[in-house]
Design goal:
Chain A has about 170 residues and is α+β, with helices and mostly antiparallel strands. Chain A contains 7 helices and 4 strands, in the order ααααβααβββα. The mean pLDDT of chain A is about 90. Chain B is an alpha/beta fold and about 625 residues long. Chains A and B meet through α2, α4 and α5 of A and α2, α11, β9, β11 and β15 of B.
Chain lengths: ~170, ~625
């Protein structure tokens, strides 16, 4: 079964991280969760979390403690593209509110929401460190600066195209 | 390319590097985060293709460097041997640059900087542009000059020579003494003397110690750590090995935000290269000293920038602060003695070792030595990264380096120290920027983010915005921070929607003070600062919101109204077309009107009116 295969993969990931990080045994939970999350397209399902707990020999409650604390982890499915909107002052004073409004209108979801087609999840983030070119958003690992509402519409359209081509 | 007098970049810092470049035909392209986001990659592709078209790919070297600093003008490029600076590049400009500049030796005037004061085009911006000439680069010495992915280039610019000097000629005590005498203070915020910190970590008994680097940069408006790690990762790596030697640690961690994937990639590459050269790992340079280093990623939590929360997160746990004491120097990672410094602090170390503490201490003020990297963001012409001697005045930063406030607006305030700091109003423009002076006016140096605000910024809105950040990012451990900030936010929400009551300001002040007094960590203790600081300097704005239901900066939507000046409106219908809620009506070629009941105050109309007929008024 497909599910079993991915679960096997989770075990492999954890073994790989264990090898990669030689300093201590106990501290690899966050790195493991990052990698596991990548496999499941931006979230960590409960089955995978159980395997992580088992393989690292930590209680499942500890895995969830960490999963739910950090904003970049999710226990629910998210879109193919995670749009992180910088919600910091430098982006705010250079017109960030307009960008957020445009994203709301364009995607028809609020913060934390995923679009109906499953392509986009909209999230808030702290400063992305590109304050020189605010307002800024991050889509998966790509950054976009000096945004205007028109540019946002353009970028989203580009990703829609990419997303449809991929499916 | 030398045009006579250089003002303040010391020649010995820049000259040898520039000369090394001058020998070859080299194109430096800024690959800092900001330039990448404005299209550096497509410029590079186009440049490579154009060089091939003219069969120049083997005679012209193209180097992607770290951040050159002037983010607003990106993507940026420097061409050597001449040292010509081009800005705001587009892929289509490459043809002109290659065919005109490289082949015919003619400078492409349209892509040059213009001196904002004299309106003269500048060919060599490092020598002639006030943004660069006022800077003194120590922590950012290699940024925009070397290829961050090449350890060879780092070594060619004096890299790892400090490590060699330390391992071969100095005892750990001498290293610590050097750092102490340099007067270097922590660049992450509080400004604790670095040498003293190292000494404390050395004196704690134990064979197992850790060196930590705090790269969890999260202060809104601060991006120097990101830029240093992306632009010159080896400077931090080298310093961490030196720190390990000084305090007697064999292991180190760099804790970095997962939001900085490029920095993580370059650090990993740097570690790999340094290991290959034997600069990391067992028996470094035959000294018998061994040191290993790994990267730990965050996962999106601002509080992890607080050192004890960071240590929890390094250990793979929720990032919640610990009670101090014991301090990390006694019980840090895995309860072992731990030395924790910030990225910029480390980046200063190699130069201090090489040039000596006296040299470093000759820069800066009496109590604050050396330079500080500041990030200029918000309403300022030249946004970006600058490194200046501590003690420079705010006016020099705003008007000389920053180029002033855009659109001829007035400077209103600058926020420093992020959500833990406060604002500096215009009356302090001539105050020197150093740790002590900033503290006396109710803000702090912080990590060096400066967010500029002009007359169109509402300070109550800014305070609300910062508080929203603190509410979002509170880890939840202490009730005063978790609940208190929420209540303060509710009060501000009321004030900005026109429902403020008499006594609200006093409530904010009392509540803010109790949060400061009763929170555990530095973040909680400083979270009300932006509110208290804006009340201190802009109390009249708060009062206008509460008593007159008026937003003087015309920002808070419930307190403003849009109106059309009949004498200016020509009835072009542009505004009516753009209005998303159809609040604007009127016949073609006749003055239009806005229905305030329907209008959502989105401001779309004001942007499209070419006749200046629409204005905001307050009170609504």
């Amino acid at each position: 079964m497909v599910v079993d295969q991915t679960l096997e993969k989770v075990k492999d990931i954890i073994e790989a991280v264990k090898k990669e990080q030689s300093l201590e045994e106990g501290d690899i939970l966050i790195n493991c969760l990052h990698k596991v999350q990548d496999v499941y397209q931006n979230f960590v399902p409960s089955e995978a979390a159980e395997i992580v707990a088992e393989s690292l020999n930590v209680p499942l409650s500890k895995v969830y403690e960490v999963l739910t604390f950090y904003t970049m982890f999710s226990t629910k499915t998210r879109g193919t593209f995670i749009i992180r909107v910088c919600n910091s002052l430098p982006c705010h004073v250079t017109g960030g509110a307009k960008i957020i409004e445009t994203l709301f209108e364009e995607l028809k979801v609020g913060f934390g929401g995923t679009t109906e087609d499953g392509l986009f999840t909209l999230e808030k983030t702290g400063c992305l460190g590109l304050c020189g070119v605010g307002p800024v958003i991050m889509i998966n690992d790509q950054f976009y600066g000096n945004l205007t509402p028109e540019r946002v519409v353009e970028i989203i359209a580009g990703y829609r195209k990419k997303g449809r081509a991929g499916t | 390319m030398n045009t006579g007098e250089k003002t303040s970049i010391p020649n010995e810092v820049v000259a040898p590097q520039v000369e090394a470049r001058a020998a070859t035909n080299t194109i430096l392209l800024c690959a800092g985060g900001a330039c990448i986001s404005s299209g550096e990659e497509s410029c590079l592709t186009s440049l490579r293709a154009t060089l091939e078209k003219y069969a120049l790919q083997d005679v012209v070297k193209v180097v992607e460097t770290g951040c050159m600093g002037m983010c607003d003008a990106g993507p940026l490029m420097i061409l050597y041997p001449e040292g010509v600076f081009y800005q705001k590049l587009k892929p289509s400009d490459m043809e002109l640059i290659v065919s005109e500049h490289l082949l015919k030796g003619r400078i492409v005037e349209s892509k040059l900087f213009e001196n904002p004061n004299t309106k003269v085009k500048i060919t060599s911006a490092y020598d002639d542009h006030p943004f660069f000439t006022k800077q003194v680069k120590i922590a950012t010495r290699n940024m925009g000059i070397i290829d961050p992915m090449s350890i060879e280039e780092y070594i060619a610019h004096d890299g790892y020579f400090s490590l060699q000097k330390v391992l071969q000629e100095m005892t750990p005590e001498q290293v610590i003494d050097t750092i102490k005498r340099s007067g270097l203070r922590g660049r992450g915020g509080a400004g604790f003397p670095t040498g003293l910190k190292w000494e404390l970590a050395r004196k704690v008994p134990g064979n197992e110690k850790y060196v930590l680097c705090n790269a969890d940069e999260g202060d809104p408006g601060a991006f120097m750590d990101r830029s240093i790690l992306e632009g010159d990762p080896h400077s931090v790596l080298e310093a961490m090995v030196i720190a390990g030697y000084a305090i007697g640690a064999q292991k180190g961690y760099i804790y970095i935000r997962a939001e900085y994937p490029l920095a993580i990639e370059r650090l990993n590459e740097g570690i790999k290269q340094a290991k290959a050269y034997g600069l990391f790992g067992e028996n470094i340079m035959g000294s018998g000293f061994s040191f290993d280093l790994e990267i730990r990623m965050g996962a999106g939590a601002f509080v992890c920038g607080e050192e004890t929360a960071l240590i929890e997160s390094v250990e793979g746990k929720r990032g919640q602060p610990r009670v101090k004491p014991p301090f990390p120097a006694q019980k840090g990672v895995w309860n072992k003695p731990t030395l924790n410094n910030n990225v910029e602090t480390y980046a200063n170390i190699p130069t201090i070792i090489l040039k000596g503490p006296e040299w470093f201490a000759s820069i800066g003020t009496e109590k604050s030595k050396g330079t500080k990297v500041f990030c200029l963001a918000g309403k300022i012409k030249n946004t970006g990264l600058v490194e200046v001697p501590i003690g420079i005045t705010l006016r020099e930063i705003v008007y000389d380096i920053g180029g002033g406030i855009p659109n001829n607006k007035a400077f209103k305030a600058v926020q420093t120290g992020g959500p833990s700091g406060g604002c500096i109003p215009a009356q302090y423009l001539d105050m020197p920027i150093d740790y002590e002076s900033l503290k006396t006016i109710g803000t702090m140096m912080g990590s060096g983010g400066m967010v500029f605000m002009d007359e169109d910024t509402c300070m109550v809105d800014v305070a609300k915005f910062f508080l929203e950040f603190s509410v979002d990012e509170s880890c939840g451990k202490c009730t005063p921070c978790r609940e208190g900030n929420r209540v303060m936010h509710e009060i501000l929400e009321r004030i900005t929607s026109g429902e403020g009551e008499e006594g609200d300001i006093e409530k904010l002040e009392t509540l803010g003070q109790s949060i400061i007094d009763s929170s555990l960590c530095g973040l909680g203790q400083s979270s009300p600062q932006p509110v208290l600081s804006t009340i201190r300097y802009f109390r009249d704005e708060y009062e206008a919101h509460i008593k007159e239901k008026r937003c003087p900066a015309k920002v808070c939507r419930p307190l403003i109204r849009y109106q059309i000046d009949e004498s200016k409106c020509v009835g072009c219908t542009a505004c009516a077309k753009v209005c998303p809620v159809s609040a604007i009506s009127g016949e073609i070629k006749k003055p239009h009107t806005i229905d305030p009941e329907i209008c959502t105050r989105c401001g779309s109309c004001i942007g499209v009116c070419r006749f200046g007929a629409i204005s905001r008024v307050t009170p609504a």
